[in-house]
Every structure is written in structure tokens, then in C-alpha cells.
Amino acid sequence: MPPEAITQVIRLLVEGVSVRSIERITGKHRDTILNLLVLVGERCQNLLERTLHDLPVRDVQLDEVWGFVQCKDKNNHTGNPEFGDAYCFTAIERNTKLVITWHLGKKSPHDAWIFVRNLESATVGNFQATTDGWAGYPEPMLAYFHDRASYSRLIKVYARTAADEHRYSPPRVVDTIVVDVCGDPDPERICTSHVERANLSIRMSMRRLTRLTNGFSKKWANLHAAYALWFAFYNFCRVHQSLRVTPAMEAGLTDHVWEFGELLEAA
User: Fewer beta carbons within 10 angstroms: which end of the chain, N or C?
Assistant: First the structure.
């Protein structure tokens, strides 16, 4: 495809347009679009690995986004490890809004260790970190950051909902419990709101993560590539509304907003 057509397809993908809609808009076959997604996603992941390392950070928030490949875990009778629930672990710097690192896997201690190890490789210096109440975080966080991070868990207590209400709306938070794990966390900075808002942007901008849709991922590689493309676009090309610059500019990684062509060329 000519560069203009590639740029159009990628722009539509990061704006939440489904693959079949892109097929109708551009006239490109859906298999070509998916092949392009995987190719560009792999290169975007290489770009992120080259640029997101040894980052000085102050406040880091960790969370995960749920999705699935082919089917949900409860309906996966194939034994294929790449089918079923797929959680994207993300770490965001509160002040720059930069996605520092990410990992796609299962919600398991094994994947939590991989994610936290990636965070350790991407950052330098002392900082404060906050996670939610999931029990998979404390052990790897203590192992990797006991000497350079003040780490707290923000545990949310939810109200009970009606029988089917939880299927279409999140439960109401009625209380929060703070558990300091290591270091000396500043109570005013214990928060997960920024990473949760970033997760909302992910879900709004990736068609395959839309609730109650048939546009979900059919292959693990496609979902992985979609995340890599989104994070590269988010960090380098997408102007953050509150910052008025991109997260990469705020973090000092670049001095201008990248165009799509520049992103593809750098990747």
C-alpha cells in the first residue's frame, strides 16, 4: 500500500473504528488491515522498548484492563492458552501521563512479576507507587522496589448491586482502605484515578475492547499489536487535554507532536 493508505488505516484503528468498517471506508481487505496492524504493532513495541527506559518518575500508578481473545475464560473449552481472558497491565506516570510500560497476559502472579520487572527496567530513582487491592502486586513490588519506592495499595470497597445491574454499570464505591506496603508514602499522593482514566481512553479508542460487541480479538497477536500501536500513538502523537502537549513531550522524550508518518518512520 502507498504511505497515504497506510496512514489512513492506522489513523482509523487508533480512533476506535472496527476492522470491517475500515474495510468499507478504505476498500482494503480486512486480512490486509490485520496484517498491517500486526506489522506496525510489532514495530511500535520495538519503538517503546527503545525509548521508555531509565525514566525519572515521581508518581506511578498501576492497574489492568480486562479483555478477551476468541471467548471468555468460562467459555474456553479448547485448552488454548491464547484464548480467554486477557489483561493488559499498565503503569502510568501521574504528572506526565506517560505510559511507562505495559504487559499483556493473564491476571496471574506470573504475569504480575513480568509486569513489575518491566517497570523496574523502565525507571530510575526513587518514586511513589500505588496499585489497587489485587493481591498479585505486593510480592513483586517488594522484591524489585523495596529500596527505592514508597508503595501503597488503595483497596476499594464496593456496594452490592442488583442481580443484573453489574453487567452494564460499575458497582458504586462506598469506602477505600489504604495499606502502606513499603517506604513512606505521602497520603495526598495515594491514588489510582489517573491510570483508571487512561484505561477508559484505551477502551474508548480500541474497538476490540468495547463492551457487548462482536469486534473482540480473535487472535492474541492482534490484540497485542493493537495495544502496542495505541500506546505508541498515545505517548507520542495524541495531545493530552489537560497537558496541552503529548505525554512524551511532557516527559522530555521529544520536543514536538509526532505525525502519524513520523511515528511509522520511527517505528
Answer: N
